[in-house]
Write a structure and sequence with these properties.
The complex is a heterodimer of chains A (about 325) and B (about 325). By secondary structure, chain A is of the alpha/beta class. Helix content of chain A is about 30%, strand content about 25%. Chain A has helices at about 50-55, 80-90, 100-105, 110-120, 125-140, 145-150, 160-170, 190-205, 215-220, 240-245, 250-255, and strands at about 5-15, 20-30, 35-40, 65-70, 75, 95, 175-180, 210-215, 225-230, 235-240, 305, 315. In chain A, strands 6-7-8-3-9-10-12-11 form an 8-stranded mixed beta sheet, with helices on both faces. In chain A, helix 4 (about 110-120) crosses helix 5 (about 125-140) and helix 5 (about 125-140) crosses helix 7 (about 160-170). In chain A, about 45% of the residues are buried. Chain B is of the alpha/beta class. Chain B has a domain at about 5-30 and about 35-100 and about 180-255: P-loop containing nucleotide triphosphate hydrolases (Rossmann fold). Chain B has helices spanning about 20-30, 65-70, 90-95, 95-100, 110, 120-130, 140-150, 165-175, 195-210, 225-230, 245-250, 255-265, 305-310; strands at about 5-15, 35-50, 55, 80-85, 85-90, 100-105, 185, 215-220, 230-235, 240-245, 315, 320. The interface of A and B includes residues 187 and 255 of A.
Chain lengths: ~325, ~325
């Protein structure tokens, strides 16, 4: 296996609101290799999206990265100025969001937005810009890319728009792509097509990808490794086989077993009792303890990482046996 | 077998697209140009028995939400018949109190709950107005309903925005239950919820169904949720029902190529990497659906016949009907 080219160490991103400090991301560490898809899975409020935004340098007031390091090929991203980070984005790291209409300019043809993305980062002839656009549009499985270049976003279906966004992300040949729920709003048949093309591009181009989602089934089919987050903290990280096949954390197990396809049709679903705690009033212990059947007194103490294997790490005092 | 509670026969709904006062005026002076018509629901026939749950599944633009609104009686039909316990909708809906027997739960409770009303008013309003509960008893009544959906009694004084997404959906369900419905239509009622919250709401709906014998129509794009909750399933594609069968039968032996494609595309939690090339083609625009069988441009077994002829639903096994003209020939 190759060495990781991207690393996040002890990342803390907090929001300083009038109600108090919301610790959205607490002590997150992971790395990424070329040609690898790392899935970050969690429910609303788990901090998965804030993790992605932190990497992109897009945390706005009242939030900020309080501590920790994010580095790509040895370069520290948290130390970059706004202008340096702007040049870094797109060229080195690109991001894809859930709603393509948020990313695409409704008043511009696809061609003009894609050209703009290229020319922002360097002087390139129109001929070459055109060729590069056609190449990436074909790479994500867009039929007749020539025609699509002339289209406006509203003239395309949701699936087509998201492909254009992904193609634009590939345009500058980035080292990695962060995708936040990129296929959640799409129909299943369209979702399957897009995942197929993305997996191929990751493999062919040797990209690193972070795929943020609440959908474990998509990850089980696409990701190489999966990181499970809950209420801002890491619960478990491992290969897809570790997490889907042999989950050890009580939260991962509960999450997997509450999915309808893992229950007998017609019977009640195994549900997790209670709700996620408020991020304003977290103790220093495991945030899942209040909903966990295995919790004891020690769970209110800070939870250290336990190494189960070279790939599998867990944050829990009472993990299930392997 | 139970009595029939709802029956739809050849139900259709069309919308005229791009209609405006200007266009109408222009047409008056410059001669009529035919407006673009979207057939959102095209000759759909369904039945629902007392206590039964029917699932309706399909992708964007298949007309499932339009169908839901027609069944709920909040959208008139362009043609076709709707009967509730044998009575046509026209006469049923004229009697407001009886029309309450049909209730709907929407996907987004924030846009279907009045943000300026407290939960007590949201849940109790209709019951008081229609004389189901005397005003003097409404508070106890609402607290009782809230307990049924798993909300604490003090929710009564709070506003919708003070709840989480899952709790808000409970408020939406409580509002429907407060008028003692016999039929509940859920349109993507769990689609916007997190996995663990989704499980809680699905369990709640199953409890309600068990306790009150409600008949339900459950509309969703999510096959795994449909499989879990429903007795029978109708699969829709571009306004038409392409297959209808008992849930077990549909998942064990899907007949229509579109149903097969949906089942194959259904995301599963498994360690098997998806190897196959996914199904090609986009969902065509409902504004200009393909001729003949709507599915033919994406269908692996389509023939010239499929391009020309509109398929009819045919029964292949007891209770299983589908609209493919070709699948048995293979």
């Amino acid at each position: 296996m190759t060495e990781p080219f991207f690393q996040v160490d002890d990342l803390n991103t907090w929001f300083f609101t009038r109600q108090g400090v919301i610790k959205s991301v607490r002590d997150i560490s992971f790395d990424l290799r070329r040609g690898e898809v790392l899935g970050i899975v969690g429910e609303s409020g788990s901090g998965k999206s804030v993790t992605g935004m932190s990497i992109m340098g897009q945390i706005d007031e009242p939030g900020r990265i309080v501590s920790g390091s994010i580095s790509l090929d040895g370069q520290e991203l948290t130390a970059l100025t706004f202008e340096e980070m702007r040049r870094f984005r797109g060229r080195k790291i690109a991001m894809v969001f859930q709603n393509p209409l948020m990313t695409l300019n409704p008043l511009m043809r696809v061609r003009d937005q894609m050209y703009e993305a290229i020319s922002e980062h360097g002087d390139v002839s129109r001929k070459e810009m055109h060729d590069r656009c056609i190449e990436v549009l074909m790479a994500v499985g867009i039929p007749s890319p020539q025609e699509r270049l002339n289209a406006y976003p509203h003239e395309m279906s949701g699936g087509m728009r998201q492909r254009v966004v992904i193609a634009t992300a590939l345009l500058l040949g980035p080292d990695m792509i962060i995708a936040d729920e990129p296929t959640t709003a799409l129909d299943v048949t369209i979702q399957a097509q897009i995942i197929y093309h993305i997996r191929r591009q990751i493999d062919e181009r040797g990209l690193g990808m972070i795929w943020i989602t609440h959908d474990l089934s998509t990850l089980s089919e696409l990701a190489d490794r999966i990181m499970v987050m809950y209420a801002g903290a890491m619960m478990e990280i491992g290969t897809t086989e570790d997490i889907i096949g042999f989950p050890r954390h009580p939260y991962t197990r509960k999450l997997l077993s509450s999915v309808p396809s893992r229950n007998t049709p017609g019977e009640k679903l195994r549900q997790i009792p209670g709700n996620m705690p408020s991020l304003l009033s977290l103790g220093k212990g495991c945030p899942f303890a209040s909903r966990c059947e295995r919790a004891t007194e020690i769970c209110s103490e800070p939870v250290p990482a336990t190494r189960l294997s070279a790939t599998h790490h867990i944050w829990c005092y009472h993990p299930f046996e392997g | 077998m139970n009595e029939m509670i709802f029956e739809a026969k050849d139900l259709s709904r069309s919308f005229t697209v791009g209609r405006s006062a200007f266009r109408d005026l222009a047409n008056r002076f410059m001669g009529d140009r035919p407006p673009t018509v979207l057939r959102a629901v095209d000759n759909v026939s369904l039945t629902l028995r007392e206590g039964e749950t029917l699932g309706v599944v399909g992708e964007s633009g298949c007309g499932k939400s339009t169908l839901a609104r027609m069944i709920a009686g909040i959208l008139p039909a362009s043609s076709g018949e709707r009967h509730f316990r044998g009575e046509p909708y026209d006469s049923l809906l004229a009697r407001k109190r009886d029309a309450l027997k049909i209730q709907m739960v929407f996907q987004d409770p924030l846009s279907s709950l009045n943000p300026r009303l407290r939960v007590g008013e949201i849940v109790g309003e209709a019951a008081v107005l229609h004389g189901l509960v005397p005003r003097s008893r409404v508070k106890e009544y609402v607290i009782e309903i809230l307990a049924r959906v798993g909300l604490p009694a003090d929710s009564i004084g709070r506003y919708p925005h003070q709840f989480s997404g899952g709790q808000r959906q409970r408020v939406g369900i409580a509002r429907s239950l407060a008028v003692k419905p016999d039929m509940l239509i859920c349109d993507e009622a769990v689609a916007a919820l997190d996995v663990s919250v989704q499980a809680q709401i699905i369990n709640l709906l199953m409890d309600i169904r068990r306790d009150s014998g409600l008949a339900m129509i459950f509309i969703s794009h999510d096959l795994s949720v449909i499989r879990h909750l429903c007795d029978r399933v109708a699969v829709m594609y571009l306004g038409r029902v392409v297959e209808l069968a008992e849930t077990e039968q549909l998942f064990a032996s899907p007949a229509h190529p579109y149903t097969r494609m949906l089942l194959e595309g259904m995301p599963k939690i498994s360690l098997e990497r998806r190897k196959f090339m996914p199904i090609q083609g986009e969902i065509p625009s409902p504004l200009s659906p393909p001729s003949g069988c709507h599915f033919h441009p994406r269908c692996p077994i389509a023939t010239e016949h499929c391009r020309r002829t509109r398929p009819e639903l045919r029964e292949i096994a007891s209770g299983q009907v589908h609209a493919c003209m070709n699948v048995e020939a293979l």
